[in-house]
Amino acid sequence: MTEIINLEAIQHLPKGTEFFVSDLHGEHGAFDYLLRNGSGIIRTKIDEYFGDDLSHSDKDEMALLIYYPTKQIALIRERRGSVYVEQYLEQVLPDLVKLLQYMGSKYTRSKVRKLLPSQFSYIIEELVAEIERSASKAQYFQVMIDKIVQLDQLENLVEALSEVIQSLAVDHLHVVGDIFDRGPEPDLILDRLASLRSVDIQWGNHDVTWMGAMAGSLICMVNIVRISARYNNLSLIEDSYGINLRPLIAYSQTHYQPKPAFVPILDEGNITEEESNLLNQLQQATAILQFKLEDALIERRPDFQLDHRRLLQKINFKEAKIQLGESSYPLRDFNATCINPEKPDQLTSEEMEILEQLRRNFLASERLKRHVDFLFEHGSMYLSYNDMLLYHGCIPMHDNGDFKSLRIGQALYRGKSLLDFYEEQIRQSYRNPTVDNDLATDLFWYLWVGECSSLFGKAAMTTFERYYIEDKATHKEEKNAYYRLRQRADICEGILEEFGLEKESHIVNGHTPVREIDGENPIKAEGKLLVIDGGFAKGYQKKTGLAGYTLVSNSYGLELVAHKAFKEEIQDLEWLYTHYEDY
């Protein structure tokens, strides 16, 4: 009876705040700052509650204390001394309690209680209960604070209150794909996500390559190393995940010399010539290994209809040219030393040994296993949630708006059934990491490059052409019709209906950066579809003109928040004091 009453009452509480983000691309600093400030919600709540009772500078100082409590306290101590710190924290403590009470008022006491750290749970509950104290209980409140100070727990309590306020700003987080890519710290993002009480993930194309690697896919492993070498990000593999790449690096340095087409791309910073050469050679070696493995995969999977991408078979090795359609193109910076022209997909004995070592090293990474477990436990190809349909890439379509089909054997998959099929298969593969050439494992790669992949959404991935062919016309990757058709309300209504949602629902989409700098609108199809990839990745920010979006859904409706480029200096509070209005 009590539970029935409780559930009925909860339905009449204001809606909790949901955050939607996508395409984090390993940019932990920007993501962490977004969570700490609630995408601006915490500062707004400070304004709402305190109004003119606090000065603008006092509100800024309180906001910074909530975002970075440990750093803020240390900075105040450095600037004004320990005596002032204690006085300041005693003064601000009641205001933090009031703000916590205000932000928690839309939730049940039980829900708020679960957010409280066990060390301070009772104290915080009592402080919240007595903050609007009567004269008869004023002494009780003050004695609690005095005792906290006496026990030297004031700083710890303020830090705990700040973290609870951060948690109250975001009731549930949706990550619409691509935690991984060129950024350096996807591992820290996953650690942060694992600490949240309520989160879901819709897998992106970069995510599934890491998932595929831990499912035993050699081509996914090689692709990860190649991309990491391209963007000077080997430390993620070697240091963060403890995966030994030395045999592969030694092999690449033996067989390949640095070439202009393989110069690593740096989003920031500089590296030595020696480091650049190592990344260059490793990128070449992994590219050739990738094309060999891809050729063999395509041959054993005719249902994938990728025969036109068996590019090693189209090379005239004597003339160093490749035949694509009716045209022949000279190859630049192409090293065929490790390729048998008679059987170009054949791995050498040295390569087979190195790949087997690489597999063992990947599968032995406990931290990566823990992170991929988390992705499978909290992730999916798509999600229907509160009248919203969330997916990373696209729903593959023909030009006329019909769903594009993938035929496997006698079965046809399209629309919802296609995404369900992908998810069922890759989950099956992850349960059997020692099997590396079955359909389920090969589908990880199809999701990366396939024409009917909902995560890729293009006709072909032109990695080979970009490396080896000068003519940029061959580099073009034709997008699926979905990206043109998603502008239409009737198309979006058809997608929603396919996934069992009402026409009045919304689609939340990531994957393609919104070029706001060119006037592109992230809100499409008369408001039915929202694209929230605004460019967390530093490499895309010149194209987008901003640094990501947060879609916020609460009891007031939907709000799309655009972000400026995150600067590492934000975490230096001295810098942030003078630039706060911008962030």
Give the secondary structure arrangement, pairings included.
Layout: H1 2-10, E1 18-21, H2 28-37, H3 41-50, H4 56-67, H5 69-80, H6 82-104, H7 109-115, H8 121-130, H9 138-150, H10 154-169, E2 172-175, H11 186-195, E3 199-202, H12 205-214, H13 218-230, H14 234-240, H15 246-255, H16 273-300, E4 315-316, E5 321-324, E6 327-330, H17 349-363, H18 366-378, E7 379-380, E8 382-385, E9 388-391, E10 406-408, E11 411-413, H19 415-430, H20 439-449, H21 463-468, H22 482-485, H23 489-498, E12 506-509, E13 523-524, E14 529-531, H24 541-544, E15 549-554, E16 557-562, H25 573-579
Parallel strand pairs: 1-2, 2-3, 3-7, 9-12, 12-14
Antiparallel strand pairs: 1-15, 4-5, 5-6, 8-9, 10-11, 13-14, 15-16
Organism: Streptococcus danieliae
GO molecular function: fructose 1,6-bisphosphate 1-phosphatase activity
Protein name: Fructose-1,6-bisphosphatase class 3
Structural class call reads alpha/beta
Strand content: 5-15%
Instruction: Give me the count of strands.
Output: 16
What ranges have pLDDT less than 50 throughout 5 or more consecutive residues? Answer: 1-13
Which strand order spans the largest sheet, edge to edge or round the barrel? 7-3-2-1-15-16
The end-to-end distance, rounded to whole angstroms, is 48 Å
Overall mean confidence score, pLDDT: 91
Q: In DSSP terms, counting alpha (H) and pi (I) runs of 4 or more, how many helices?
A: 25
Our Rg estimate from Cα atoms comes to 27 Å
Helix share of residues? Answer: 40-55%
Tally the structural domains: 2
Q: Report the principal-axis shape.
A: globular
Largest sheet: 6 strands, mixed
